[in-house]
């Protein structure tokens, strides 16, 4: 009874109505769609096959997406979208008052509500209060997402009136996201990740390769950073692997890194010397442009790894506590390596032998 009352209060305060039309999903009533994915870069990229499938199913619909600023490079320029809306979470702006951040979010929420979406989708593979709230606030006729699993979240289950039971945890994130739209009768025809790379970023990479006389057919990329410590590989391992590739296999190695890890690239470069190059990437678009030119890209689990698969480069993912069945590099021609709950347990020789297969071929 309290849960029902809780729902009614929200409906009245936010939408000025006591009850909400449930009904059966009717694709004929869909002309405006909003997809919400307010988490990380890799998560957003794993949603791009779902975006493509929705565009195929509703070719004439207005389609928009809402993401956080940190993840915008994963989706800006996507040809299946008519518009992308971006906001910043308060925790991502420590230099800004929380009140200011929340005020800006409220302005965007009210703006999206005026868009009168017919279908709004919370794209995460597990219920998120913040994501479901964005979906609910739009007032869309159909609100699709995964139902909450915990008792404390179930009181907010009415945020979605098309709530779907969560899929088993051993399914990949791409499959989980596609499972949402299968529930409304949309079947994907293709499932590869997609990201748009501006020509200007490609030109910067071409200039870099030309300046250093680097042959892309012999170029292997290393991404040195991971926000999750258990997924990190130590600088000694990267150094040892780079030496083998440069000295024994006559390969070029290019290093990229995340914020604060430039010192790691300097250490590897100093210890290996010729054949290793550092390439600063102030944004993910530039990283993707470089990854396009690599023969193989090695990365800890994270946004950089998913970017490499999205641009079509053969990728080796290093995994610690994250489950590769859920977050491994998606698609054929990629490898996920894991030994226990720390990426540090993966040996240099194991990665080298994996890379050798691509070098030989």
Q: What do we call the CATH homologous superfamily of the largest domain?
A: Glycogen Phosphorylase B
Domain unit count = 2
| Mean pLDDT metric | 91
Inertia-based shape? elongated
Rounded Rg: 22 Å
Q: Any key phrases for this structure?
A:
6-stranded parallel β-sheet, Rossmann fold, alpha/beta, 361 residues, elongated, 14 helices, 2 domains, 12 strands
Short description:
Helices cover 39% and strands 16% of the residues. With 361 residues, the protein is of the alpha/beta class. Helix 3 packs parallel to helix 7 (173-182).
Give an account of the 3D structure.
By secondary structure, this protein is an alpha/beta fold. 39% of the residues lie in helices and 16% in strands. α11 (284-292) packs across α12 (303-310). The longest helix is centred in the N-terminal third of the chain and has 17 residues, at 98-114. The model has no long low-confidence stretch (mean pLDDT 91).
Per-chain topology:
Layout: H1 2-15, E1 32-37, H2 41-45, H3 48-57, E2 62-68, E3 83-87, H4 98-114, E4 119-122, H5 129-137, E5 142-146, H6 151-154, E6 162-164, H7 173-182, H8 199-211, E7 219-223, H9 235-247, E8 252-256, H10 262-272, E9 276-278, H11 284-292, E10 296-300, H12 303-310, E11 314-319, H13 324-327, E12 335-338, H14 348-360
Parallel strand pairs: 1-2, 1-4, 2-3, 4-5, 5-6, 7-8, 7-10, 8-9, 10-11, 11-12
């Amino acid at each position: 009874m309290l849960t029902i009352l809780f729902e009614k209060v929200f409906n009245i305060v936010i939408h000025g109505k006591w009850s909400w039309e449930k009904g059966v999903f009717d694709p004929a009533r869909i002309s405006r769609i909003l997809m919400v994915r307010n988490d990380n870069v890799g998560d957003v990229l794993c949603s791009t096959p779902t975006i493509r499938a929705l565009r195929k199913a509703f070719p004439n619909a207005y389609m928009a997406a809402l993401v956080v600023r940190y993840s915008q490079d994963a989706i800006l320029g996507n040809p299946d979208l008519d518009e992308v809306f971006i906001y910043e979470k308060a925790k991502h702006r420590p230099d800004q008052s929380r009140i200011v951040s929340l005020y800006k979010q409220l302005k965007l929420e009210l703006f999206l509500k005026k868009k009168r979406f017919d279908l709004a989708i919370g794209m995460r593979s597990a219920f998120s209060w913040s994501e479901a709230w964005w979906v609910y606030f739009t007032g869309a006729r159909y609100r699709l997402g995964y139902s909450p699993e915990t008792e404390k979240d179930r009181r907010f289950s009415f945020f979605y009136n098309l709530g779907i039971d969560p899929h088993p945890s051993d399914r990949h994130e791409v499959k989980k996201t596609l499972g949402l739209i299968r529930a409304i009768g949309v079947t994907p025809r293709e499932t590869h990740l997609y990201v748009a790379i501006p020509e200007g970023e490609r030109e910067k990479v071409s200039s870099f390769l030309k300046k250093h006389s680097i042959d892309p057919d012999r170029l292997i990329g290393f991404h040195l950073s991971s926000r999750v410590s258990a997924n990190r590989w130590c600088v000694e391992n990267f150094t040892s692997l780079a030496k083998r590739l440069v000295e024994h296999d006559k390969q070029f190695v290019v290093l990229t890194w995340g914020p604060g890890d430039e010192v790691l690239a300097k250490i590897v470069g100093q210890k290996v010397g010729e054949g290793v190059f550092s390439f600063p990437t102030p944004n993910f678009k530039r990283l993707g442009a470089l990854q396009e030119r690599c023969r193989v890209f090695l990365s800890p689990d994270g946004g950089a790894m998913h970017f490499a698969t999205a641009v079509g480069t053969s990728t080796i993912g290093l995994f610690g506590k994250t489950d590769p069945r859920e977050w491994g590099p998606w698609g054929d021609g990629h490898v996920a390596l894991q030994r226990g709950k720390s990426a540090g347990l993966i040996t240099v020789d194991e990665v080298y032998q994996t890379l050798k297969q691509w070098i030989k071929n």
